[in-house]
Automatic annotation (TrEMBL):
SMART domains: BTB. Gene3D superfamilies: 1.25.40.420, Potassium Channel Kv1.1, Chain A. Residues 18-49 form a coiled coil. It comes from Spirodela intermedia (Intermediate duckweed). PANTHER family: SPECKLE-TYPE POZ PROTEIN (PTHR24413). The keyword Chloroplast does not apply. It comes from the Eukaryota. SUPFAM superfamilies: POZ domain. This is BTB domain-containing protein. The keyword Coiled coil applies. Residues 65-140 form the BTB domain. Keywords: Coiled coil.
Length: 240
């Protein structure tokens, strides 16, 4: 595809292209490469359980499930939700934590029940759905909650999926919170993105409420921010 200026400048369409078209084509190629890599990772993830049982259903159902997952809301108005059915083979193939749990003599293996606290019913449903399909409808909160579960159960593909979504949403207003979250959950890509945004807006950092909370709750992260800022200053300073 050639822009209007290219058509006017080059009589032979193979003769060349303008800088804008070249840059646009390069960006499109990079996006296509990233999409292909994402699809390859998804296929690899979904194939994990095929050597165990190729006849497993594409989604959990109570009729064929051999294990159930439970969560509940804590507090004075404790709510117990219906169990979420699943298949041991799928859980074990997707998560080394589930694999160790269900292959051992632990209570979960004996009872056929896995209890997961500190997670909402909707998040747990989405988590289990992802283990079967490698798909999830994300918003900012769901991405955070799923990333925490993905880290807890070592579901690397899901963690990367959530992290990429969070990177696409992080901005100058949310950079400090994203930086602290990434630190807590070993989310390296998100950490780098959030830190870069913080360093680009250092003049406004101390005015933010999130910064003051960070000073109170985790001052070592504040030190890390300033160390990174000083390193950038040194590396970008003009050389004599």
């Amino acid at each position: 595809m050639w822009c209007h200026s290219c058509r006017e400048e080059y009589e032979d369409v193979d003769a060349g292209t303008c800088k804008e078209c070249y840059e646009e084509a390069s960006e499109t190629e990079e996006e296509l490469k990233r999409e292909i890599e994402d699809l390859k990772a998804k296929v690899s993830f979904l194939r994990l359980c095929s050597p165990i049982d190729p006849h497993l259903p594409a989604s959990p159902s109570a009729a064929t499930a051999d294990i159930s997952l439970h969560t509940w809301s804590s507090g004075s108005d404790c709510v117990v939700y219906a169990p979420i059915p699943a298949h041991k083979a799928v859980l074990m193939s997707r998560s080394p934590v589930f694999k160790a749990m269900l292959e051992s003599e632990m209570e979960e293996s004996q009872s056929g029940t896995i209890k997961i606290a500190d997670v909402s019913y909707t998040v747990l449903q989405t988590f289990i759905h992802y283990l079967y399909t490698a798909e999830a409808l994300l918003d900012e909160q769901m991405a955070c909650d799923l990333l925490v579960l993905a880290e807890r159960y070592q579901v690397k593909h899901l963690k990367v999926f959530c992290e990429k979504f969070m990177i696409s949403k992080v901005n100058g207003e949310t950079a400090v919170m994203s930086f602290a979250f990434a630190h807590r959950h070993n989310a390296g890509m998100l950490l780098e993105t959030a830190l870069a945004l913080i360093l680009d807006n250092m003049s406004m950092l101390t005015a933010r409420e999130e910064y003051r909370e960070l000073v109170e709750k985790d001052p070592r992260l504040v030190v890390e921010i300033y160390e990174a800022y000083l390193t950038r200053q040194v590396n970008t300073a003009p050389r004599e």
